[in-house]
Amino acid sequence: MTIERISCAPGDSNNEDLVAVFETDGLLDLLVVDGATSVADRDYADTGSGDVAWFVQSFASELGKTIDAARSQADSLRLAIDAVRRMYAELTAGQDVPLYAHPLAALTWIRIRHLPDALDLSLYCLGDCKALAIDGAGAVTDLDPYENPFETVVQDAVAQLAAHGVLDPKERLQRLLPLLRERREAQHAAPAPAVLCLAPQGEFGARERSLRLPPDTAVLAMSDGFYRLVDPYGLMTWDELARRCRVEGLASLMRELRAFETARAGAAAPAVKNADDASAILWTPQASRLDQRGPRAPTAEDHP
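^ Protein phosphatase 2C domain-containing protein, sequence as received from the core. Prediction below:
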């Protein structure tokens, strides 16, 4: 078994993504959390790293305390977010925090149990991270088919701005703030939130799925900043991305992503930001005929 993970921000900005691995009582839990870029004028809980980075790091820390083989993923997550909410309330006490300023995130949480002749997977997904499986022969399965309907709205708005000559990312963000803030308020106020938020008004509207896969299947989870290689850049297909991650390693694909973004700097971007935090985790249970690469020297992009 091998676990490879990577997470980095573009340039010198704070990384608001997080990848984590928890091993408890025979369970292996893989977690990718993608913090949503703040649309507030300032930070309220953490003026150093920023509220979003504080949120994803605090959540992962609290989640690690709640994971138990006898507890469901939904129950563990709710305990963790309740603890984070109490912490946030203490840190922001006395401040008037707009609802759109409350941090939120997307996450994909994959729980793996080993059976004698199969892998038992349980998925708990909020937002637009991605999870793929690659079997020993290279066949790729989308474990959580999902398309974010709001992304089309954002891309259309960005395209309209570009058509009017608005290419600077800072100016683009300012023009889009009313739309983005309205969206954040709606997400926080939803009766069954589809993203990870501080104060859910009801049960989370998570996409939950259980399935069994062949024992030689690898699992890849990633944030939308990493899978820009497929959507929206179109540099490869989902199948190609998954297979190349397994054969070449995550750092190779990260270098390709950043090189493409650097080369197209100044061009009209298909998203609010020209580049985003990017994270991925690849779990490989055992060698297959796909795994032909030799030992790879660690790079500065790899994070343990």
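The longest helix spans residues 169-189.
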